[in-house]
Amino acid sequence: MSERLQKVMAHAGVASRRKAEKLISEGHVKVNGHVITELGTKVTDNDEVKVDEVPISREVPVYYLLYKPRGVITAVTDNKNRQTVVDLLSDVTERIYPVGRLDYDTSGLLLLTNDGELDNHLTHPKYEVDKTYVAKVKGIVTNDDMKQLRTGVRIDGRKTAGAKASVIRTNQNSSIVSLTIHEGRNHQVKKMFLALGHPVEKLSRQSYGFLNLKGLQPGEYRKLKPHEVEELKKLSQTK
Where do the RNA-binding S4 domain residues begin and end (predicted)? Predict the structure, then answer.
């Protein structure tokens, strides 16, 4: 049975399918000793695939849920030698990588896996996975602000989808707001609040779909249970 090269690479835990496609097009991949740059190339189990001269092997897929602390990079490596989310899972032997990203100064729920197919689906714009954040923002959030969050806020030249929003509490000069979105635009939550005149002071992702941080402290992680993996696959329509 033959499969597309980028899919094989994703299943082997090399990278997500989109990142695998970039590696192929940039000439990092060889099949049976020949550099391949054609994305439609198909390979079988009998073909030898190397990425930067390192042979790939199909790994058993693994899935982890991490409570990412603030001050950690959502990446596999960092050229500034800062701590990455993968560093926090130092006893995991498989080559895992984060699903999507959280900013350096943002904490909360982050998935890591070597299942490139699932990663590709969960991060694709057409799959609407709810993500709930709790934000501490400057100023008092008004009813008009809440209405805008619920109907959509214009950022980067286009309007966001409507969000679920509620004020948890207000202090003298700040507000704590829960916001649920299903889009994955860059720095979206921060930009939405900034557009309303409420810069984010602190941000944490509390849930991803049906998953939450229950039982975990910042820096701790756990393996997903089999039924959670199946539910994620249903959520991303990959099953």
Answer: 3-66
**Is the CB of residue 202 less than 8 Å from the CB of residue 135?**
yes
Largest CA distance in the chain: 66
The two structure tokens encoding residue 94: 């498989």
Residues 6+ apart with CB under 8 A from 155: 185, 188, 191, 192, 195
Identify the CATH class of 131-208.
alpha beta
Which overall architecture, per CATH, does domain 63-125+214-235 show?
Answer: 2-Layer Sandwich (3.30)
Q: What is the pLDDT of residues 193-231, one digit of tens each?
A: 999 999 999 999 999 999 999 999 999 999 999 999 999
Question: Is residue 52 annotated as part of the catalytic site, yes or no?
Answer: no
Q: Band of the pLDDT at 239, cuts 50, 70, 90? A: very low
| pTM, to two decimals | 0.79
Selecting among 78, 87, 103, 130, the annotated active-site residue is 103
Tokens matching residue 71: 């001050």
